[in-house]
Write a structure and sequence with these properties.
By secondary structure, the chain is α/β, with parallel strands linked by helices. It is 40% helix and 14% strand. The longest helix has 26 residues.
Length: 261
């Protein structure tokens, strides 16, 4: 008898930042696994591209996680089209490398507004929708997956706003998991190791920082965005019905390495 605990076919998944990088890989992965996907980002061009990649039966829309009305509109579209929202992946994010002494407060606040406050805005809207949905056999009404970072745990020089925002994401995971279990909503996170994307490629490809990060990773290489899809599908699947408040680190062994020689 086949084990179908990782089956997400028919589930409705909304992915923020779903048109590029990690979010795009997860959106496409869910679609390939049979889920119904809405992928959103601020770029009209990227939204059109991901709509073509996803194909029929899926949605894509412009979505600004820092704008409450934009977020509500995306959820309204998802519910109007598919009837519910089973899973939300909070993958939208920005990063900027700059010495902390030189960073304008407005820039610090901009990064935190997208990475942290935006993640809360999305999660809050998800919670409002999910708590009134019909539960599944495990009593679950929905689940939320945050994308954290190695920077949630360790310091990387001159990306302080990103580090602060991604550290806050861990607090959102724990706090909302604790608070919203009563509604049948699970909340977890994924902390990727070093995965080159549009967000960080200039910081790590062919740079001393990138060379160090790769050398410190036991796998001996950077990750591929597609290697995060399985973690997301697990957290959204029936197999994770008792996994709550946990952030799964997918880093090629980076956090495990102390002295490598």
């Amino acid at each position: 008898m086949a084990y179908n605990g990782f089956d997400v076919a028919g589930k409705v998944c909304l992915v923020t930042g779903g048109t590029s990088g990690i979010g795009r890989a997860i959106a496409l992965g869910f679609a390939q696994a049979g889920a119904k996907v809405l992928a959103g980002s601020t770029s009209a061009e990227k939204v059109a591209n991901i709509k073509n990649e996803l194909g029929d039966g899926h949605l894509a829309c412009q979505l600004d996680v820092s704008d409450e009305q934009s977020v509500k509109d995306a959820f309204d579209l998802c519910v109007k089209t598919f009837g519910r929202v089973d899973c939300v992946v909070n993958a939208a994010g920005v990063i900027k490398r700059q010495p902390s002494l030189d960073m304008p407060v407005a820039e610090f606040e901009r990064i935190c507004r997208i990475n942290l406050t935006g993640s809360f805005i999305v999660a809050q809207q998800a919670g409002r929708v999910m708590k009134d949905q019909q539960p599944d056999a495990n009593g679950e009404r929905g689940n939320i997956i945050f994308i954290a970072s190695l920077n949630s745990y360790i310091s990387l020089t001159e990306v302080l706003a990103y580090a602060a925002s991604k550290s806050g994401v861990l607090g959102l995971v724990r706090g909302l998991a604790n608070e919203w279990a009563q509604y049948g909503i699970r909340v977890n996170g994924i902390a990727p190791g070093v995965f080159p994307t549009e967000l960080n490629r200039k910081l790590i490809e062919g740079t001393p920082r990138g060379q160090f990060l790769q050398a410190h990773t036991p796998a001996g290489r950077f990750g591929k965005a597609e290697e995060l899809v399985g973690a997301a599908i697990y957290l959204a699947s029936p197999s994770a019905s008792y996994t709550n408040g946990h952030t799964l680190i997918v880093d090629g062994g980076f956090m495990a390495r102390g002295v490598g020689v």
